[in-house]
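Sharing a chain and its predicted structure for anyone who wants a worked example. Both blocks are below, sequence first, tokens second.
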Amino acid sequence: MKAVILAAGRGTRMGGLTDDIPKPMLRVQGKPILEHILEGLREAGVEEFCIITGWKADVVERHMGDGSRWNVRINYARQQVQDGTGKAPELAKDFVSGAPFFLTYGDILVKPDTYRRMVERYREGAHAGVVTITGSEDVTKGGLFFFDDQFRLSHLVEKPSAQEVESLRQSGWLKPGATAWYNAGIYIFEPSLFDHTAKLVKSPRGEYELTDAIAAMVAQGHNLAGLVIEGRWVDVRDPQTLAALQNES
């Protein structure tokens, strides 16, 4: 299986830390976030990577090179316009070449075993992909995912407003005391994803949203299996999170 890593963003919440480098190149315990991700995916058997670069692309490309020091092959594609995560995967369409692939944001850290479990989940049935999730009773944290009795994605709401949360409660999607499942930002997709990214229109915030393509897949009956991430999951979203990671064992 191949892997596509989205590493084009600057990471504005990092302030001056990303003036000269993109967020995925910030160091955690001595090496870039991007390197941690690549090594974890390599442990799951991935040997071919496409890194989507943008902000300070040369910093990524110079450090990661062709991948030979990790015994993998790295390709690059540059996202010239930062207009959302929905269109960025299309830059890797030729690289994917008809095969299933990992897709991950370049600022999310998990234990390497997560990637292996994703492959196992994908192979359990006739799935068009796998979406990973984390759980919480706090319904304000991010994109909400809902699943059927076979734990396949059946509904999603990206960053619900207070009014949408109330509507979800009234309609029975959100149940009192039940775990709310949040999009963890690491996926496996079959190339059918591109049929839906090609049709995206910009969201109210002026970006192409990957979750809109996922919603379209669900609406058309594609089976997307859910997988709960066990153990570590960190969205390296701000300087405080980055600092806390430096002392993690």
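Comments welcome. The longest strand covers residues 180-189.
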